[in-house]
Amino acid sequence: MYWEKNVETIKRAKLEDLQLGRLKETIGRTKKSYYYGKVFKEKKLGISSLRKLKDIQKFPFTNKDDLREHWPYGFIAVPKEELVRMHSSSGTTGRATVVFHTINDIAVWSNLLARCMYMAGMRKSDVFQNMMTYGLFTGGLGFHYGAEKIGALIIPAGAGNSKRQIQLMRDFETTVVHVIPSYALHLSTVFEELKLDPRKDTKVKIAFLGAEPHTEKMRKKIEEIYGYKAFNSYGLSEMNGPGVAFECPEQNGMHIWEDSFLVEIIDPKTLQPVPDGEEGELVMTTLQREGMPLLRYRTKDLTRIIPEPCSCGRTHRRIERIKGRTDDMLILKGVNIYPMQIEKKLMEISGVGTNFLIVLDREGFNDLMTVKVEMDKKYFSGEMKQMETLRKKIVEELKSEILITPKIDLVEPDSIPKGEGKAVRVIDNRKD
Ligand code: AMP
Ligand code: ZN
Fold it and tell me: Are residues 182 and 145 in the same domain?
């Protein structure tokens, strides 16, 4: 049974006591990492700086760049031999950040995920098909361990291979799935191709949708196509991955597990906290992590706390569906991509001009990326063959960097409109 009633419905005052105790332990641990050790010394910070929860505001924020700059082990707070697992964000090697876990961290994480899945209605008797990438990405193994705690039968299908997914789903009578929303939509076209109706021809009743932004409209569409209930699952690798915030049966905002994460919402410009109910950037501090505790991590995700209590009885506050980001990170098919990655690669290729534009479209249920690239003039007077060779080279180079195969349009110099001020690098035409 994974309804941890005493924790999930804990009174606010008691929860805050628990958080303060855990925060003090966390500060004690973080001090041992190279990075925080250095920062605490410089800023004369330590456990004694912490009397009440609000004192967290005395501590500096941690950013993705801090993690990158201290690659690979600058944030670990235990001897390396205590670490048992590494994961990374869904970007690629150049920009990805890594996170390390002790055996205890894995147990805590699995527990959080078991709570999430149980909350949404999954039980030991369920057959759970995990359609997420297994490996460095957190979605596969994270959910796998959580489902194992509940005791469900797991089909570790991994991502892709749509026909096989459908066959597994039908042959083994899958009842719960974990899937990226854009893939759920794509998969529905394969059902159609096979002349199958997912509502009639499968037994799936629950889906966990995570890893990328999606609207309420998109959730409804997925629920309508499949005839199951779809629950929003939010997380990020720096905070373990999935299992940070999750919808309950009310399907109205995601409970964020406050016994494990200290939550702040800040104004991304002033960096000051905003009152509950107001939109801002989500900032989190790990309260239980040993291997790589993080203080005031700026997620860059925009959301707000829903101040009203939830009728399910859980006292951990809810955050609203993620509205967007404060940086320029794009998520395509669940993969995080920064325009900078594309720029850097393009600039390494001779013949490429100075301007480019990324256009994202949705064709049917498929998300596509087109990169319009300005080329040197000489290519437009030369042979077509030369141009085609270059186009292929760009496709290959970008694919190796961002893991997605983009469509490349080579265009003449100065043909991409230049706005005033900051260049517009991305046009996102994806609609519900
Ligand atoms: P990663 O570290 O690769 O797991 O990527 C984490 C990022 O994915 C988050 O910071 C969010 O921007 C995004 N993300 C994950 N889950 C969701 C979700 N349910 N809704 C919106 N965005 C999400
Ligand atoms: Zn609830």
Answer: yes
Please give the distance, rounded to the nearest whole angstrom, from the Cα atom of residue 153 to the centre of ligand 2: 26
Closest-lying ligand to the alpha carbon of 249?
2
| Cβ of 129 below 6 Å from ligand 1 | no
- Alpha carbon of 391 to ligand 1 centroid (Å): 31
- Give the E-state strand segments of 150-195 in sequence order: 153-155, 176-179
Give backbone dihedrals phi and psi of 108, rounded to 5 degrees, phi first: -65, -45
29 shares its domain with 101 = yes
Distance 87 CA to ligand 1 centre (A): 15
49-64 b/e (C-beta count within 10 Å ≥ 16 → b): ebeeeeebeebeebeb
Neighbours of ion ligand 2 (CB under 5 A): 248, 250, 310, 312, 314
Structural domain span for residue 376: 330-428
pLDDT score, position 188: 93
290 and 210 co-located in one domain? yes
pLDDT (tens digit, 9 = 90+) per residue, 8-29? 999 999 999 999 999 999 999 9
Please tell me the pTM assigned to this model.
0.91
Q: What is the CATH number of the domain that holds 141?
A: 3.40.50.12780
> Are 171 and 247 members of one domain?
yes
